[in-house]
Specification:
Elements lengths: L4 E5 L5 H6 L9 E5 L2 H9 L5 E8 L3 E2 L1 H8 L5 E9 L3 E4 L10 E4 L1 H6 L1 H7 L4 E4 L3 H10 L6 E4 L1 H6 L3 E5 L8 E8 L11 E9 L6 H10 L5 E8 L7 E8 L5 H13 E11 L14 H15 L4
Parallel strand pairs: 1-2, 1-3, 7-8, 7-9
Antiparallel strand pairs: 3-4, 3-11, 5-11, 6-9, 6-10, 12-14, 12-15, 13-14
Helix pairs in contact: 8-9
């Protein structure tokens, strides 16, 4: 059997590649860098890759809009795993040099924003040059095509492009973390572990008072905790939104399955994006009356009433 193919947001040396390499299976697979999130996901849709690793949200900069929008539209895909990867930035150059000699720095705007305090304190006169990604900044610096003296990128980029590290861990938020998701074509979700997460997109049927409350109630009455919810425009017209949602639990669990059925009744559409193990291993607190045995007991009770056996 040929090795699995993993598309990821490239070029080589990105945080996405570093996150992907934390998966044991990826060590034996073929890694395919892609220039954008849509192209990485489309590689899976087209069958050119078996999986895609893409960033979903960052603890400092928030969600990655391109990933949310791509998962909400087009041919369905399914999240099978998440990875929480610490974000650590390195200032790198083609060779050793003094910080005082650095005049222009290339990096992605998000990286510059996360290192702004360090740059102001250590390189107040340096000019920022925008690059498509942190890895692209490092690659351009390495091949001599860059119009800057140094780059800010992931530590893996310095190794990949043989650049000299001038300063490590320069981010202003030492606890910054990016959440990545591994995506495949639709199929049966992984087996429940007891510490799982379910992702979905809910499309509101029409704009009316209480529309969001109707969505939230389907989770609340069943004791399902939301870990993330945010609105995204559908692109149809102004005022038309969908809600990207992560909740605790697995679709095979009664409370989560029934919440999704409830959404199906009140929403124009619901796109299931997957149930998968939580990277942090946190187990949800099951509220009284919402466990699987209690759901089964209630169903059996209702069946007895319908059959006249009460």
């Amino acid at each position: 059997m040929p090795p699995a193919r993993y598309a990821y947001l490239g070029p080589e040396g990105t945080f996405t590649e570093a996150a992907l390499r934390t998966l044991p299976a990826a060590a034996h697979g073929e890694l395919l860098p892609m220039p954008s999130v849509p192209e990485a996901l489309d590689a899976v849709r087209a069958g050119d890759a078996d999986f895609a690793m893409v960033p979903l949200e960052n603890s400092v900069e928030g969600s990655v809009a391109a990933t949310l929008d791509e998962l909400a539209a087009g041919e369905p895909l399914m999240v099978t795993r998440e990875v929480l990867f610490p974000v650590s930035f390195t200032l790198m150059a083609r060779g050793p040099m003094d910080l005082a000699d650095v005049r222009r720095i290339g990096t992605h705007p998000h990286a510059e924003a996360q290192c702004r305090r360090w740059l102001a304190e250590n390189l107040p006169h340096a000019q920022f040059v925008s690059a498509p990604s942190t890895a692209a900044a490092a690659a351009a610096l390495a091949d001599g095509s860059a119009h800057y003296d140094a780059a800010i990128a992931a530590p893996i980029a310095a190794e990949r492009y043989r650049l000299a590290a001038l300063a490590d861990k320069i981010g202003d938020n030492p606890d910054a973390v990016t959440r990545f998701v591994l995506v495949s074509r639709p199929g049966p979700p992984p087996t429940p572990t007891g510490a799982d997460k379910t992702s979905l997109v809910a499309f509101i049927a029409d704009d009316h008072p209480g529309a969001l409350l109707e969505v939230l109630q389907e989770f609340a009455v069943r004791g399902v905790n939301l870990t993330r919810i945010e609105s995204r425009p559908t692109g149809e017209s102004l005022g038309r939104y969908c809600f990207s949602i992560d909740c605790e639990g697995h679709i095979d669990e009664a409370r989560v399955g029934e919440a999704l059925m409830g959404l199906r009744r009140v929403c124009a559409d619901v796109r299931f994006l997957g149930s998968y193990p939580r990277a942090d291993g946190v187990r949800p607190k099951i509220r009284r009356g919402t466990s699987d045995p209690e759901f089964r007991d209630a169903m059996a009770w209702l069946a007895r009433i319908r059959e006249g056996r009460v």
